[in-house]
# Entry
Amino acid sequence: MVCLGNICRSPLAEGILRHKATKAGLNWLIDSAGTAAHNPGCSPHFLSQQVARINDVEIGKQKCRQLLKNDIERFDKIYVMDEENYYDVKQIAGNKWDAAKVDYLINEIYPGENRDIFDPWYGGVDGFHKVYDLIDEACEAILRKNMNHS
Ligand code: 4NP
# Structure
C-alpha cells in the first residue's frame, strides 16, 4: 500500500487489509510505504490512528518508511492511492517497473477508472473518515475476490 508520506492513507490501508485478511485466516504479507516518506520511523497521523481505532483496527505500532526499488520485486501487488503516487512508483521502480503489479486501490471498487483516494492531510477528521470508508470498501473487494478464487 503506497501513498506520498506513509502517514495518513497507506497506513490505514495496511491496517485495514491486515485486519480483514487475519479475520479470514489468510497469511498475507502486507506492508505500506511512502514515495516521499521524509521522516522514516514516524507513526501514522493521529487522526488515522483515531479513526482506525473507532473501527476496531489498530495501526499505532506501524512505522513509516520510504518505498524502495526492490519492493516492486518483493510484493505481488502494489496499490497506490492517487495518480501522483502511480507516477512516483514508476520512477522509483525504474527498470523493475511492472505495470501488471501496480494499480490504484480504488480500482477495486471502480474498475479501470483510476480515481484518486484524496489526501486528508490538509483537512479535518471528516476527511479521514471518508478516506477510511473508501479504503475499507476497496479492501473488502480485495478479500472477496480472493475468497472466490480459493
Ligand atoms: P499521505 O498524506 O500521503 O496520505 O501519508 C500526507 C502525509 C504527509 C504529507 C503530505 C501528505 N506531507 O506533506 O508531509
In short: The chain is about 45% helix and 5% strand.
